[in-house]
Amino acid sequence: MTPRRARSAQAGFSLVEVLVAMFVVAMGILALAGLLQASTRYSKMSELRSTATLLANDIADRIRANPMGGEIGTGGYDITDKAFPSPLAPPHPPCTSEAPCGPVDLAKVDLADWTARVHATLPKGSTWIQYHAGTPPAPEYLDVWVGWADPLTLSPGISTDHSGTECPDTWKKIEPSVRCVYLQVTL
């Protein structure tokens, strides 16, 4: 009879085993919570980058539709304000059949509309467009940057040096959490 009693005394789990199992499960749950937080953070970052890319493509299409508005000295699409966030482009009367616009006026209408959309859709939305005269056979082109302050890097404990090389240096000095999308538009 003693062997039976010895077997039944060893059946079941000890308190140490139960505590270790609870610890392992708790660590797994914490890891999943951290994964969920990172997933949310990267999802928001991806959303902002997609929005900025769409806005940069929008102005690129407007520039391609009005290449004369981007030429140097016209005051058209060239906006290189060093401030971050950049100011809105000054409003310009819309083009109508009674008051048609030339290429420069159309560029100003485009910029007023576009910069307002950038400011409305991105946190600290900023714009930078710089004209470069091409020497033949190289074509003329414009550099287009759309920038925003990444709200996720403004939190304490998160590194703010994520801007990389795609942003203008003057913006990185003003706002270390700046993120940018860059396009080069050939005229």
UniProtKB/TrEMBL annotation:
The chain crosses the membrane at residues 12-36. Pfam families: N_methyl. InterPro entries: N_methyl_site (IPR012902), Pilus_4_PilV (IPR013362). PROSITE patterns: PROKAR_NTER_METHYL (PS00409). Keywords: Membrane, Transmembrane, Transmembrane helix. NCBIfam families: IV_pilin_GFxxxE, type_IV_pilV. This is Type IV pilus modification protein PilV. It comes from Scleromatobacter humisilvae.
